[in-house]
Write a structure and sequence with these properties.
The protein is built from two helices and ten strands, in the order ββαβββββββαβ. With 113 residues, the chain is an alpha+beta fold. It has a domain of 74 residues. The strands form four sheets. A four-stranded mixed sheet has the order 3-8-9-10, sandwiched between helices. A two-stranded antiparallel sheet has the order 1-2. A hairpin with a 2-residue loop joins strand 5 and strand 6. The longest helix has 15 residues. The radius of gyration is 16 Å and the shape is globular. The two termini are 16 Å apart.
Length: 113
C-alpha cells in the first residue's frame, strides 16, 4: 500500500494504482464491448510543456498521464479516477484543460473514487 492506502491491481497487462481505477477500467471495457465507446486507451500520456534549455541546463518536459481515454459520441474523452487530488495533479489538470479548451471534440472528466 502507498501513502493514500490504495492497493495496486494488475489485469490485461496494465497496473492500476487503485481498486477504483481498476473497477472503472472494467466498466469501460464493458462499455466498449457494448459499442457505447470506442478506442479505449489505458494510461495515455499528453505533453503539457516541451523540454527547454535554461542557463545551460536542460529542463525536462512536463507530461500528464491520464487513467483512460476513449471516443464517445465522436468526442475524445480523457478521464482520471481520483480519490485524492494532489497539488501536482491539480496543476497538471489545469495545464491539460488549457490545452484542450478550444477543442470542441475533446473533454476531460474527473471520476471521484
Amino acid at each position: 500500500m502507498n501513502k493514500y492506502h490504495n492497493r495496486k491491481v494488475t489485469e490485461d497487462g496494465y497496473t492500476f494504482d487503485s481498486i477504483a481505477e481498476y473497477n472503472r477500467y472494467r466498466e469501460l471495457k464493458i462499455m466498449q464491448n457494448n459499442g457505447d465507446i470506442q478506442s479505449l486507451v489505458v494510461h495515455p500520456s499528453f505533453l503539457l510543456q516541451e523540454p527547454f534549455d535554461y542557463n545551460g541546463k536542460r529542463i525536462n518536459a512536463i507530461r500528464y498521464e491520464a487513467d483512460f481515454s476513449y471516443i464517445e459520441n465522436g468526442a475524445v474523452v480523457v478521464e482520471d479516477v481520483k480519490g485524492v487530488q494532489t497539488d501536482v495533479f491539480r496543476i497538471k489538470e489545469k495545464m491539460f484543460k488549457k490545452q484542450i479548451a478550444n477543442h470542441l471534440d475533446m473533454e476531460f472528466r474527473l471520476v471521484q473514487a
